[in-house]
Input
Amino acid sequence: MTRVLVTGSSGMLGGNLVRRLRADGTEVVGVDLNPPREPVAGVTEIRGDIRDPALLDRAADGVDAVVHCAAALPSYTDGEIRSVIVDGTRNVLRASRDRAVPRVVHISSTAVYGLPDVVPTPESYPRRPVDSYSRAKTAAEEVCEAFRSDGLCVAMLRPKTFLGPGRMGLFAMLFEWAAEGHNFPVLGRGDVRIQMFGVGDLVDAVVTTLGADPAVANDTYNLGAADFGTIREDFQCVLDAAGHGKRVVSLPARPALAVLRTLQRYKMSPVYGRLLHKLMADSYVSIDKARERLGFAPLLSNRQAILDTYRWWCTQRGPSRKPSAGAGRTSRDPWNQGALSLVKALF
Output
């Protein structure tokens, strides 16, 4: 692969991938609505929307592969989520087919499983979306499968929530509370196991998929950390790193869940519905298929990934990193805590 198109190239994943590809000597074309915060020398940057077919036709001309990272977040409106994730993916694949691009790597999500009752969840588990985001991700996978059936090599990677330098979003709330010397609440005992994923490992998986035999690449793979504990343990490691002697505090699950649902309904909390349910039950996937077929093995544990992100966050603190009017539009920005910021003093 000598020339690769990366959509969402200014985002957290896209930015890390662009840097890795350029370090490996690969020519990169980046497409994003926003300019990169840390420009990489030698990258051809195209400002634009993946919902613009003509723009993607130009961007895909002469590339050897496309890595489709661009997506909407659960904080977007239902209409935006659908148009960006589903229509955008269709445009990316159509341009790739029309420009005879040999391979596309589509970044999907384990959200397509909804709230699975089997852990570890294998790729064969049915897609059971439960909200606008997971429905759109499911529909985008169906688009990918249609293009596969027409002969396009489409790798679909389903990562768990990934962390690393550049990640803000909801994690900025945990980091802020820890750094300011507050305890941090969890629903119930906090003994559920929530698998996450280091962004460096995800980038490695993408690069591995780009170089894999077409018969291996043209498949669907779960990705996540191999080493992970409970959410209490993972959050506690951040509090310990902050050095204030604070602890993870259990809240009665049912009353707390009812309050958070109400706040979310009135847009007073960034904690969306599917996440609330995920925090109440084990959530991890099988990565055996990626190990066996791709030869991929993640290096970072949950603990290492979250601590790397926290240490990076500490270097970024300041007025410029406070939530803005556009908070919630990207994972690279701290999201507005809403009413949750008012209860911080209680902890």
